[in-house]
């Protein structure tokens, strides 16, 4: 009978620990998926803007006339905007990966 009590005593704490851990895991997954969805939406929007900037750059080069400083400034500005958008997309994608790693690390520390 003492073995049964010892076995039952060890099972109760793990059961009581597993329920809150399961709830935390579900909540963290929902949290991650919401943030991931918002970041993916933002990345999609940035890619659309990037496509428009490439289109604008092509039009500027097509209509470029020699010695037109104003148009050259527009081209330089568009190139800088393209660089910024590309860096921002990479940053947001990296941020999603880092958030996922943080959530997994935090969850494993609680075990």
Task: Give structural notes.
Mean pLDDT is about 85; it is low at about 5-10. The protein has about 110 residues and is mostly helical. The chain is rod-shaped, with a radius of gyration of 27 Å. α1 (about 1-60) runs antiparallel to α2. The two termini are about 30 Å apart. About 95% of the residues lie in helices and about 0% in strands.
Q: How would you spell out the order of helices and strands?
A: HH
DSSP helix fraction: over 70%
The strand count comes to 0
Shape: rod-shaped
**Assembly annotation:** single chain
> What's the rounded overall pLDDT mean?
86
Secondary-structure blueprint:
Elements lengths: L1 H61 L6 H42 L1
Helix pairs in contact: 1-2
What's a concise summary of this model?
This protein is mainly alpha-helical. The chain is 93% helix and 0% strand. It starts with a helix and ends with a helix.
Essential attributes:
93% helix; 2 helices; mainly alpha; 111 residues
